[in-house]
Amino acid sequence: MNEKNKTMIFIGATIVLVVLAFVTAPRKITPNSFLEQGELFFPDFTDPNAAKTLEVIDYDENTGSAQPFKITFSKGKWTIPSHYNYPADAQDRLAKTAAGVIGIKKDDFRSDNSADHEAFGVVDPLDETAVSLTGRGQRVTVKGDNDIILADFIVGKKVEARENIRFVRIPGQKRVYAVRMDIDISTKFSDWIETDLLKILKSDINRVILKDYSINERTRQVNERDVLSLDKKDDIWQADRMTSEQEVDDTKMNELLTALDNLSIVGVRPKPAGLTQSLQKAAGDISVLQSDALSLQSKGYFFSNDGRLLSNEGELQACTNDGVTYTLRFGEIVYGTGEAVTAGTDTTVSESSAPGENRYLFITTSFNEDYFKEPGKPENTDFFAKADSLWTDEDRKNKELNDAYEEWIGKVENGRKISQDLNAHFAEWYYVISADSFENLHLTRKDLVKEKEKEK
């Protein structure tokens, strides 16, 4: 073998050894979990308006059962199916929730071991194979048109000592991330609706009428105990039939007005279709089928012999500066908590087993056509065809009369519309209000009229 061949053999051997060393040398391997850090969980979900259904499932460890809550977009509006498709009016919460889901990222890899799921609180609440009742997370699913899943994830416990950081897992996957998320995904009925029931300010209320009566449910005879009329004059409340030694209790009156201003919904029940149609046509002329009367009676409402709709706990009327009168009729007690109150799902709830007391409320409104006094009309409207500089004194007077008349028409039309819009909504529902609200509204003359304090 000549020297040239020996040299080529040595060179080839050296190359083989270098390649072998490169191939077998230890190197740092980056797991896929770390490569994914910083990526969006749902990169294809980019438009919050694409969301048509939001379903949140909690887990009740006491009963060992999943607690679903859903809102869905149907026929042009968001509704809550579990509560008879009551409108989900909290649009800001919907928008923030959808935007928050779109923005969540895989911030910090924590585990690929399913044994860690319970400690992180990301066990699927729908997983029937899971043995433990603890460690269940909150499963959130967002769907688009045709039930296409846009996002589906399980929110677990908060990461200790880190604000707005939660453990998150995708259903069916083992991997858990610590995720920054500022999303309040509530399953409370009251968080998704417009809770301000009457939408009035106490400063706009100028008259309150409290009707204290009872009705014999068998004979339909009415025992009219008292009717208390309270009117505001120059910011001072006065009651009818007060003596010179009496006055309205300002503290109690303010509590009543505040209760009206802040009156909130606790729960809802649908009214029969026939009753709803009657109420939407004319709130002051209610007529129902005999079958619908059973629904009314179960909630504490009855028709008197002269055709008036009455309640077994009396009623309150509040008149506002818009000329609208709100009539609140107080019905039967509603016992229970949770969905037994908000939706009436538990029909077995009894007085002895339920800790909470609430009340049915039946609301109607009407517009007082005589509330705004009709002003005189102008004798003519010739001023419309003239320049302002050519107006006579008569033209200026007619212009003032015309302006006053147009303002009157605007107030009347506004009051009618307010009443009509409210009745269209109120007509569909029996409402449930809290016991505290009922106690603050269900007052009598004895509560509101007191003896004047004698000067010392």
Architecture overview:
It is a single chain. With 456 residues, this protein is of the alpha+beta class. The protein folds into two domains: 34-191, no CATH class; 202-451, no CATH class. Helix content is 27%, strand content 29%. It contains eleven helices and 21 strands. It has a nine-stranded antiparallel β-sheet with strand order 4-3-2-1-6-7-8-9-5. A hairpin with a 6-residue loop joins strand 8 and strand 9. The chain is globular. 28% of the residues are buried. The model is unreliable at 22-30 (pLDDT under 50).
Name the average pLDDT.
87
Largest sheet, strands/sense/barrel: 9 strands, antiparallel
Using the CA coordinates, give the radius of gyration.
Answer: 34 Å
Distance between the termini: 136 Å
- Outline type: globular
Helical content stands at 25-40%
Query: Which structural category fits the helices and strands?
Result: alpha+beta
Low-confidence stretches: 22-30
Taken as a percent bin, the fraction of beta residues is 25-35%
Q: Could you give the count of β-strands? A: 21
Structurally, the number of domains stands at: 2
Strand order of the largest sheet: 4-3-2-1-6-7-8-9-5
Number of helices: 11
